[in-house]
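Title: Prediction job returns without error message
Component: structure pipeline
Severity: low
Priority: P3
Assignee: unassigned

Description:
Job completed but the reporter wants confirmation the result is attached to the right record. Sequence as submitted:
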Amino acid sequence: MSVDARKERFELVEVFDRPMLFTCLRVDRNTVPKGLYLYEVRNDDDQCGIPVEIGRWIMVNHWGTLLSATPIKLEPNRYNNNAYRHIDPENDWNYTGDLCSAKEYMDKYLLKKFFLLLSHKSMHDEHTYLPSHRSDSERLHKKNK
């Protein structure tokens, strides 16, 4: 059984010093809002509730699911079509104690991500354009005038 990401209340966690959403359930990938990345978390072999690995998908020792506004760099596995990253539970994972929906998380962190990208681009490019209804050729034509 899996849950609908649009209806679930998640725990807000910090993983690799970034805010993310966590649930101990599997999330239906078809319900994850655009702009969020889904990862699954592996529990330790002794089943002590210690997250030890993040992957695209987890079959054995599934601890839960993460949703993130930013991608997590994973190392490809040469034996299957998956990729993983080990977690140091003492340093890489922190429960904040807060609950939040995917919409609340997106409103806060995707908007912040957009403005950070925009400000970074504008510092390095004298011609920063916001997305618009104009085609690329119209923008280039206007820029060259």
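Comment from assignee: result matches the submitted record. Residues 122-145 have pLDDT under 50 and may be disordered.
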